[in-house]
């Protein structure tokens, strides 16, 4: 059983949607319009963000793929040991790739995945993270695009879980324990 908690809204669904529009303008300017873009979501946390992002890019030729990496399990602390639980279905060699992540915390997950994907020699590899907690960083890593920088709060919603709960909240909220 987890400790009792309530969720306070930190970033509204409306603010997220507006930021995604801005991010997609920059993403469009970076990737050639006449080349297919492989959009790779990191399961499970990115599933909501990638769904909104690819629909905002509906004017582009987009292929969607997923990779699953996990470092947290059900705990609130990173294990610092990133495991690839599911690899991409498609090849990325010579292709334009955008990796989509919900949050960069210590940086272990995304830096590990980027390192792995770089070794497959994509033509261009960029990363977008909806949230960034720079105060928690343990490895030198920064996404090419960040939606929002946030303070060191435990956040949930919009794909992000606490012990597998609250991924289906439409906004980003912070967990406040009530015990
Ligand atoms: C969470 C989150 C990021 C990662 C960020 O995933 O979704 O992928 O941790 O933390 P880091 O920068 O410290 O590595 P988690 O391992 O909980 O798996 P999930 O996406 O399936 O919830
Ligand atoms: Mn994740
Ligand atoms: Mg998680």
From TrEMBL:
UniProt cross-references to InterPro entries, sorted A to Z: HGPRT, Hxn_phspho_trans, PRTase-like, PRTase_dom
- Would the keyword Membrane be found if you checked this record's keyword annotation? no
Pfam families of this UniProt entry?
Pribosyltran
Matching entries from SUPFAM superfamilies are given as: PRTase-like
Gene Ontology biological process terms, A to Z = GMP salvage; guanine salvage; hypoxanthine metabolic process; IMP salvage; purine ribonucleoside salvage
Q: What is its EC number?
A: 2.4.2.8
Stated name of the protein: Hypoxanthine phosphoribosyltransferase
Task: Name the source organism.
Answer: Pseudooceanicola marinus
Q: Which gene encodes it?
A: hpt
């Amino acid at each position: 059983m987890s400790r009792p908690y309530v969720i306070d809204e930190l970033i509204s669904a409306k603010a997220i949607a507006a930021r995604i529009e801005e991010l997609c303008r920059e993403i469009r300017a970076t990737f050639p319009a006449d080349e297919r873009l492989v959009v790779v979501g990191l399961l499970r946390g990115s599933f909501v963000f990638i769904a909104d992002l690819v629909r905002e890019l509906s004017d582009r030729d987009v292929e969607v793929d997923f990779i699953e990496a996990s470092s947290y399990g059900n705990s609130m602390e990173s294990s610092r040991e990133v495991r690839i639980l599911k690899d991409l279905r498609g090849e990325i060699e010579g292709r334009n790739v955008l990796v989509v992540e919900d949050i960069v915390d210590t940086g272990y997950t995304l830096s590990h995945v980027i390192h792995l994907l770089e070794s497959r020699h994509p033509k261009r590899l960029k990363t977008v993270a909806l949230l960034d907690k720079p105060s928690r960083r343990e490895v030198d890593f920064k996404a090419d695009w960040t939606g929002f920088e946030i303070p060191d709060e435990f956040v949930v919603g919009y794909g992000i879980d606490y012990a597998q709960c609250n991924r289906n909240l439409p906004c980003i909220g912070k967990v406040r324990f009530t015990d």
